[in-house]
Prior knowledge:
Elements: H1 11-17, E1 25-28, H2 35-43, E2 49-53, E3 69-72, H3 79-85, E4 91-97, H4 102-106, H5 132-138, H6 141-152, H7 157-170, H8 178-185, H9 194-209, H10 212-226, E5 227-237, H11 240-252, E6 260-261, E7 267-268, E8 271-273, H12 283-288, E9 296-302
Parallel strand pairs: 1-2, 1-4, 2-3, 4-5
Antiparallel strand pairs: 5-9, 6-7, 8-9
Amino acid sequence: xxxxxxxxxxxxxxxxxxxxxxxxxxxxxxxxxxxxxxxxxxxxxxxxxxxxxxxxxxxxxxxxxxxxxxxxxxxxxxxxxxxxxxxxxxxxxxxxxxxxxxxxxxxxxxxxxxxxxxxxxxxxxxxxxxxxxxxxxxxxxxxxxxxxxxxxxxxxxxxxxxxxxxxxxxxxxxxxxxxxxxxxxxxxxxxxxxxxxxxxxxxxxxxxxxxxxxxxxxxxxxxxxxxxxxxxxxxxxxxxxxxxxxxxxxxxxxxxxxxxxxxxxxxxxxxxxxxxxxxxxxxxxxxxxxxxxxxxxxxxxxxxxxx
Length: 307
C-alpha cells in the first residue's frame, strides 16, 4: 500500500468489517492514497469490483493498475447517482474513512494545516464555490461563533469570531493565509494549548467549507438503498459529531436515532450492529500513526428489511 500519500487508519479492522466476498462489489468512499482500496483488491477475486470516490484531483495519481477498480472523481455524497450511471444498483459493502488525508495536511498551499503559511483555502474539491477565505469574509459574528463552537469546540468562540472580523476590517483587500489566521487566533489560545486551539479552529473551518457533516448524512441515507441484504457499512470517523451521527444511524436507520416500531411494538431497524462499541486503534498504531488517536470505527450489516 502507499504510505507516502496517506497511511490508512485501522486498516485490518476496517477490511475485516467489510466481510469481503471474492466476487462482490464494493465502494471506497474516500480513495485518497488508495491504501484501503489496495487492501480490498488483494482480497477480491477476478470477478470482484471496487469503485473509489474522491473529489480531490490529486487522488487520481494513486489509481491502481487494476481493471477491477474504477475511480469516480466526485464527492461520496453523490455515490448513489454515480454508481447508477455505472450500471450498479446495489453493492456488498461501503467503506468511508472520513476527515483529511495526510497528503492534504502536508500540502501547505491547500490551507488545511497550521504548519507553514499557505493560502486559506481548505477545499477538498477545488470546484467548490468558496474556500475558507471567502467563507470568513461573508459570515456574521454569531454565525462564525456558532461554527467554532459546534465544529471546533473552541472555548469562548465569540472571542475568536470577533478577533477575525476585527482583523478582516484591516485586511479587507488582501488574500488571507494560514499564517494570518494563526496570528489572529494565537493570542486567544489557553496557556500551553496553542497548537490544539489552532487545530480545532482550522478543523471547524474545514468542516464548514466542505460541508462534511452534510456529505456524511447524504451517504448514510443512500446506504439504505445501496447495500444489499447482508451488505456491510464501515465508517471511520475522527470527530464526535461524525461518530454520533454514524452511531445513531446504525442503531435506528435514521439520523435522529429514533427507532421505529411496528404495530406489535417490534423494532424496525434496517441494520444489525457488527461492532458494539466503536473500535479504536491500539497503542502501537497510535505511536506509528498519530492521526489514529481520534479514530472511531463502527460496522453494521444491512438486514433482511432491505429485501
